[in-house]
Design goal:
4 strands, 22% helix, globular
Length: 97
């Protein structure tokens, strides 16, 4: 599980050793400063949660960040999804989320 900058660390770890990662949970992704030269195999499970009002990374960019690490097929499986939480920013604060 990675939160904010930790999402990059989790993605990098899973990309380097995919057989040792059963799945990833991302909360509030950030944009990588260095994009991998080639996408790596996505984990079996990937769940990303991101706020619709995130000012660090607009929610519209979340799919492209995930695909930059794990390729075009990264979000095709039903076990790899993105949930945009309405009204949330980068740091989730609503009890309903």
């Amino acid at each position: 599980m990675g939160v904010s900058h930790g999402t990059l660390l989790g993605a990098e770890a899973a990309a380097r050793e995919p057989d040792r990662c059963g799945g990833l949970i991302f909360l509030s992704l950030v944009s990588p400063s260095i994009i991998p030269s080639s996408p790596r195999r996505p984990p079996n499970k990937l769940f990303a949660f991101h706020g619709s009002n995130d000012t660090i990374l607009p929610s519209i960019r979340v799919p492209s960040v995930i695909k930059s690490y794990f390729g075009k097929e990264a979000l095709i499986s039903p076990n790899r999804t993105i949930e945009i939480l309405e009204g949330e920013g980068h740091n989730f604060h609503k009890l309903g989320s």
